[in-house]
Write a structure and sequence with these properties.
Helices cover 32% and strands 26% of the residues. With 418 residues, it is an alpha/beta fold. The longest helix is centred in the middle third of the chain and has 14 residues. The chain binds uridine-diphosphate-N-acetylglucosamine (UD1). The site of uridine-diphosphate-N-acetylglucosamine (UD1) has 20 residues, from α1, α5 and α6.
Length: 418
Amino acid sequence: MDKIVINGGKPLKGSVKISGAKNAVLPIMAAALLVDGITHVRRVPNLRDTRTMIKLLEMIGAKVKFKNGDLTIDARGKINPVAPYELVKTMRASFYVLGPLVSRCGEAKVSMPGGCAWGPRPVDYHINGLKKLSAKIELEGGYIVARAKRLIGTTIRFDYPSVGATGNIVMAAVTAEGQTKIENAAREPEIVQLCEFLKAMGADISGIGTTDIIINGVDISELTAVEIDVIPDRIEAGTFLIAGAALGEITVQDVIPEHLDSVIDKLRETGAIVSSTSSDVTVRKPDIIKPVDMTTAVYPGFATDLQAQWIALMTIAAGSSVITDTVYHDRFSHIPELIRLGAQIDVENNVASVTGVKELKGAPVMSTDIRASASLIIGALIAEGKTDISRVYHIDRGYENIEEKFRSLGADMWRESE
Ligand code: UD1
């Protein structure tokens, strides 16, 4: 297993090109199964998760080519609508194939994802949504088996605007008979892009980017394969901006600045100087980092996927801050590790109280999930001395070339085999 070693306490300066968004490309790859044709996807990040999705598409029967960020998915011919436990357990987003497979094949067998490092993460909205679309659902040996000759449109209201359930139900409803209305739908840019992609394929979708998405079902034969450029990864960009506010001056390039509004607003509250052009955002560390409370929320609120990184920044703020995660109540596995670096943090339920300290000090730590790893990297870059971060395979799930990117900014950071 690899570890990342960081000699911290060094300023960072420079520009970094942001990759395509993991959370946008995964549902797009699943949606390619809807069409009996060849889909081209550009700006695809080379991540463990995208490679897992490729493996899954191949097991389902698609022919996939991936080179230099260009992905072609040939889903012509026979499809085997099964997503096995071995893959789904390593990546929950595999569950995205459920909607398109039912739609394309009239039935699908997809493993239940199970728990994860930050809580139970149920899939009940996905399943209840499909039931409302008239699918017959059974649980067989840990697999969801969904059957429907053709789904039938209806109104589905989510109790919470789940990203995954919105994506799955939209993909299922695209070819349902009649109209489907999703109320309290997710508005994340990744869902917006999925809907735009489906529209380009021939789907009839309106209300994209609002809480009410309306889908008028089309016959599956009307869908055609298209090309798409994946949007930039706002979470990767946010991670580098937070690192910049802690450590120097960083420009993130090729981003959509409005996707970063919530993090930019919070960075400005710390005293950091932030400026942007139409495609770049630059942050400069303030002399004194002011403590800033933060509560995660659905888009356009502050992303839960940047909560761990925000806490890393707050560990060296001049005072106390309170960070609340309303999306995932149990997503704090980075905290005991940041404490190993000298941070002062108390957690109660879904609230972390951080008391800023003058400095962090290097220590061996362990990463537990993608964003916790990013938080530890920021913590280690701040910390004086050497930090070993073990189990870095988590970071490779969601960040492309992370050491190269930080090294280009001046970080003293490398990878070793343990
Ligand atoms: C997606 C992102 C993940 C991000 C999360 C929240 C992908 C691949 N992953 O995950 O990085 O942290 O959005 O922005 O895009 N819920 C239920 N029942 C369900 C579904 C969700 O109760 O059937 C709850 C969850 O437990 C959680 C909340 O809804 O508390 C939000 O989850 P959701 O938006 O579905 O997250 P994911 O799509 O899994």
